[in-house]
Amino acid sequence: LELPPLAVDDAHDLVRLVSGFDGDVGPWAESLVRDAGGNTMFLVELARSAGVAGGAATLDELLRRRIAQLAAPVRALLTTCAVAGRPMPLAIAAQAADVDDAGAALATLRAERLVRATGDRIEPFHDRVRAAVTDELPHDRLAAIHAALARAYHALAPDQPEPLVDHLLGAGATDEVAAPAMRAATAAAQILAFRRAADLYAIALEFGELPPAERQATLVAQAGALVNAGQVTAAAVAYREAAAQAQGEARFELRRLQLEQLLRAAELREGMALANELLAELGRTLPVGPRGVAWAVIKQRAALRLRGKRFKPRAAAALPPAAVREVDALWSIASGLAFANPALGKVVQLWHLRAALALGERSRVAQALAIEIGYLGVAGSATAKACQRAGAEAQALADELGESRLIGLVATCKGFATFLNGQWNQARHDLELGHRLMSDEGVSARWELDLNEMFHLAALYYAGETRELVRLTPLYLRDAEDRGDVYAQHGLRAWRSNQAWLVQDKPEDARAHVLGVAQA
Length: 520
Fold this sequence. Notes:
It contains 28 helices and three strands.
């Protein structure tokens, strides 16, 4: 249970009760309450240790006094726990602290309420306890404890590389940190801790002397983790560095992934420059000016109508690599421009659809048909019937393939189109279905899920479903914060879902979220 801080009036009553003082405790109690920060245990200890006439010690003074009175082995175990910075097995703490009777030392620390234990894992009782210990440690002593912890983790928990990385860095042993950082990054990505995984890959890249091929692979892995954490701008930088070390098809693919992140981050100047480079390599040129764009859309739509949407399914082994490269590059540009520049994106989307149909690979065709729904939906009610036809075509193929991500993508694009057409309840139904299906696919559909959640909450707002809006907004936002997904956080805090705080009569919270995004 997460308990809130003790109310001020109740805290004053507690001080009076514990201290035995019957009168007005006044400013003396206020200083105790402020120092305890609403923590009942700390407040009781402060009140007991202080006398009305003599004044009160601060919490930090009280803690340091108590720690200084501990026996040397007990104090060593507490110091090691405080430096560790995380819950840790008692056996590791005892070995690092060189304590023989760890059970007795632990019993003393628990009785003094300086540590707490859950199962076999221990940690300081509170961050104030941790600070009271570590703030007084000289740098060389701190580094020595980190080194002892690193040795203990290496000996007793080789399957836990992440704390080993932290303690090697704390000990200054940077020449040993790259290999465990790589293992820890892989483990973090497997449990969807993508922000942490990206940081660990960065440590391996900074301190490891990696061969060129391994360094490139690590950059690609870091970029993937950043994408899944919503750090698309940083991901683009990692892809750019990896592409600089690649050749041929691999270099094109990495530049395509870089472009995808740039457009999703609305970095249009750099993104469009790279888009033009890739399109030139594919023998294509973007139209210039509003009239050129409009004329290009008319010609491409006419060509698609003449060609039709029939295609001949082809096995993956029979796909020409150059054609696959073109379809994937056009997808990256078309999907990236969907919100940044939908008029120009429409041209690329029609190129993409025709290229995907010519390629004949069914999952790519389904993906192209799905994004066709979204682009048609931009025109609103004028293209409602065309959206329905495109939706039926995409749905049929996605259902035939049976891939949750594709079925969810189709449902999400249908929801986007119905949202733009003002059909809020239908949009809500489609987006909820898309979210459920794509969530089953985990990280492979994270960007699509981010967009789905933003439009789902907006549909709830316009449909007047404020109770559900208020329920879901903090859930989606907490998940985005846990993943370190900056893209999702910005959309959830500053777009239609910002109404969730206004509905609860919290205008200051709503304003703070908007300003936080504006100043980011």
